[in-house]
Amino acid sequence: MERLLINKDNIASLPLVSEVSLDTNSFNNEEMIIKANQVIDILIDDLSDETNLKINMQKDSKAHIAILSKNLLKHFEITANLEENAKIEVFFADFSNGESHNKVLINLNKNNAKAFWSLASLTNGKDNKEFEVSILHNSTNTIARSDNYGVCLEEGKLVFSGISSIKKGAIKSKTRQNAKIMVFDETANGITRPILKIDENDIEAGHGAVVGKISDDHLFYLTSRGLTTLEAKKLITYGYLKPIMNGFKEERMKEEISSLVEKRV
Amino acid sequence: MGKLEIKNLHASVDGKEILKGINLTINDGETVALLGPNGHGKSTLLNVIMGHPRYEVTEGSITFEGEDVLSMSIDERARKGLFLGMQNPSEVPGVSNSDFLRSAVNSRREKPISTYNFYKILDAASKEVKMPFDLATRSLNEGFSGGEKKRNEILQMILLEPKICMLDEIDSGLDVDAIQVVADVIRKEQANNRAFLVISHYARLFDLIHPTRAIVIINGRVVIDGDPSTIKRIDTQGYEFIKTELGISIEKEEPEMNKVSLGSCAVREAIK
User: Fold this and answer.
1) Which chain B residues are within 8 Å of A236, Cβ to Cβ?
2) Is A213 exposed, middle or buried (0-12, 13-18, 19+ CB in 10 A)?
3) pTM of the entire predicted model
4) Which residue of B has its CA nearest to A236?
5) Interface pTM, i.e. ipTM
6) Testing the interface with B: which of A225, A233, A258 to mutate, by most B Cβ within 10 A?
7) Per residue in A27-70, pLDDT tens?
8) What is the predicted pLDDT for the residue at B9?
9) Which domain holds residue B82?
């Protein structure tokens, strides 16, 4: 398996990356082609404020992409096109600041293509972020899961939207959409708009959306053991966003995510 | 002056008064059995002492070692030495049990405990409650059986070394062996001059921990405050004798749902 590290300085000019480790991939501006049978592991450690990524995955290729965003973000866009048996997994830990509208579009174009999208996002201050995550099942036996978790603090606003769509003829496809937002303060705002668009009968599809405030009973339980309300909130937030860490293999990235929770809550 | 003094305490939940003038003093080294029918205010009393936000204190006072408890935040109360072992401990997904226990231990210390020392005391306490050590690495109470949750409460009590331990039906959901384990821990802590306030519906636990006093709460008031022989009597006769001997009528729990009979408009009845 190949490893590829992208950071803030080189993401705007992805071809640079080929110097790091990749010579089997060809890049066309910001377009990445993952060749047939290739297995690749990509870590993006922080995004520049505007990032547009295109990934074309050929037959039987696999990509694991972990993204950490921790500074100002205006626009992030990722488009992935998958061929037969290709599989993409994306883990996005979003601790960015500012106002951003972000788009994710995954096209499962051929038989048995798979996509697993996981997002953990935290908004505080006056952040206003929207994540539009759409997965299109254009072929048979395609499988997708979209998990979006968010925490809204202070005057932050967070929106999860997007469509999971199964086209006519994409039989035996499976899709699942989850959106969960925990709202901490009365001034914070969390919105989820899960949409399924299904044009085929012989499929499996499901979606779930929850927006709720932090549980009084949980807070009572933790504080009754001596933790301050702030410590309790940090622990609960950390626990809530923790599943995203499974996507990060490096210990230092896990530590960085914990310290971001520590700093931002 | 008692360790914990409660005077004329009134408290309500969702506008309904549950505690209607509780007077109670707990001293060092006492083990007090708290009895009474369901829905008469036992759990409410313990939750109010700990500061659960759902309960509103409308009148009266609680002092602990001379300090006003009602003006303290929940975590301050805990750090002063109050502890509530919950009837239904919350499951908090994602929060690791050991992270939580460590934060709780550290909340009482000026310098954070070292990892080595923490695992040493955690290991010792886990053995004491006969809890598999792997429970410490799992999410807080998530997927724990009823018995495991209660053992986890007792484990926390050992680690936090409170001065007053309030245990709300700690024996419900425990098998005979587990009750023995919990009772052993309580007896050990009694020797350290800790005070206990224990709610249970079963005489078995009380037989093992030998309360020094028994208190019965009915209709939101303390109606009996005396020697532990009351426990046996209630265990064998129920609460009926209180009606006849003390002339107190026992209020029944109100049904929660509106009564809707066939033939009436359920929606209209419900919004009345």
Assistant:
1) 92, 94-95
2) middle
3) 0.83
4) B95
5) 0.90
6) A225
7) 334 678 899 999 999 888 888 888 888 999 999 999 999 999 99
8) 97
9) 4-270
Q: Reduced to 3 states, what is the DSSP secondary structure of residue A122?
A: strand
Chain B residue whose CA is closest to A223? B75
Q: State the pLDDT confidence band at B163, using cuts at 50, 70 and 90.
A: very high
Name A98's Cβ contacts closer than 8 Å, sequence gap at least 6. Answer: A49, A72, A73, A74, A127, A128, A129
Q: What is the total count of domains within chain B?
A: 1
Over residues B62-100, the pLDDT tens digits come to: 999 999 999 999 999 999 999 999 999 999 988 999 999
Q: Give the pLDDT of residue A51.
A: 84
- Partners of residue A235 in chain B, C-beta under 8 Å: 95, 99-100, 103
| pLDDT tens-place string over residues A91-133 | 999 999 999 999 999 999 999 999 999 999 999 999 999 999 9
The pLDDT, as a whole number, for residue B261 is 56
| First-to-final CA distance of chain B | 49
Q: How far is B80 from chain A (nearest CA, A)?
A: 9
Compute φ and ψ for B211, nearest 5 degrees: -60, 150
The pLDDT, as a whole number, for residue A13 is 41
What CATH number is given to the structural domain containing B214?
A: 3.40.50.300
* CA–CA gap between residue B98 and residue B86 (Å, rounded): 18
Interface check for B270 against chain A (CB to CB < 8 A): the answer is no
The alpha carbon of residue B250 is apart from the nearest alpha carbon of chain A, in Å, by 30
Query: Does B50 contact A at CB distance below 8 Å?
Result: yes
B160 touches chain A (CB under 8 A): yes
Q: How far is CA A50 from CA A100, A103, A125, B131, in A?
A: 9, 12, 21, 51
Q: Which of B225, B164, B189 minimizes the C-alpha distance to B36?
A: B225
Local confidence band at B35 (pLDDT 50, 70, 90 cut-offs): very high
Q: How far is it, in rounded angstroms, from Cα B139 to Cα B150? A: 15
List Cα–Cα distances, A60 to A18, A39, A106, A137, B168, in angstroms.
22, 9, 16, 17, 58
**Which residues, at least 6 apart from B265, have a Cβ–Cβ distance to it below 8 Å?**
none
**Residue numbers in B near A223 (CB within 8 A):** 73-75, 78
> Closest to B92 (Cβ–Cβ): which among A224, A231, A239?
A239
**Between chains, do A223 and B78 touch, taking CB under 8 Å as contact?**
yes
Closest CA–CA distance from residue A123 to any residue of chain B (Å) = 19
**Do the Cβ atoms of A198 and A169 come closer than 8 Å?**
no
CA A195 to chain centre: 17
Q: Pick from A226, A239, A240: which is nearest to B78 by CB?
A: A226
Q: Which of B83, B88, B95 to substitute to test the interface with A, most A CBs within 10 Å?
A: B95
Is the pLDDT reported for residue B17 higher than 90? Answer: yes
Tell me if chain A has a CB within 8 Å of the CB of B94. yes
